[in-house]
Amino acid sequence: VQLQASGGGLVQAGGSLRLSCAASGRTISSCVMAWFRRAPGKEREFVSAISWNGGSTYGADSVKGRFTFSRDNAKNTVYLQMNSLAPEDTAVYYCALDQDRDVLAPSHRRTWPYDYWGQGTLVTVSS
Predict the structure, then answer these.
(1) What are the tens digits of pLDDT across the range 59-81?
(2) Checking phi first, is residue 9 left (phi over 0); if not, alpha (psi -120 to 50) or beta?
(3) Residue 11: how many CA atoms within 13 Å on its side-chain side?
(4) How far is CA 61 from CA 10, 46, 64, in A?
(5) For residue range 96-113, what is the model confidence (pLDDT) as tens digits?
């Protein structure tokens, strides 16, 4: 299974980006998917997670109201729409797949349920 994240780049504060994560090697349609990020000098932190059909999402408090997680199971791809970006959103963003669960649980805010990780895409927000 491979997860290919893309869509990162340099954007000014207040701008928007849409990240994509395309999976290959298995279908994502029965999997919880998530985004995490790691800012320079910090540990990886949870951003958002989505249930198998997109019916439920979790989001970190820091991104609520600004980031939207969606999925297109037919395309085997998930998306993170990021609006009102701020310098503190600067990080490498990683997508992740939990192959054992299709509905969200509190544990999906942690890294351990996820079996596969993408390589990361860098988002830089300038002030």
Answers:
(1) 999 999 999 999 999 999 999 99
(2) left
(3) 22
(4) 23, 10, 5
(5) 999 999 999 999 999 999
φ, ψ (nearest 5 deg) of residue 74: -65, -30
Tokens 């985004």, residue? Answer: 35
Give 17's strand partners. Answer: 82
Burial-class residue 11 by CB neighbours within 10 Å (0-12, 13-18, 19+).
middle
Name which of 113, 99, 119, 101 is nearest 46 in CA terms: 113
Q: Which two tokens stand for residue 76?
A: 């085997």
| Residue with token string 């995490």 | 36
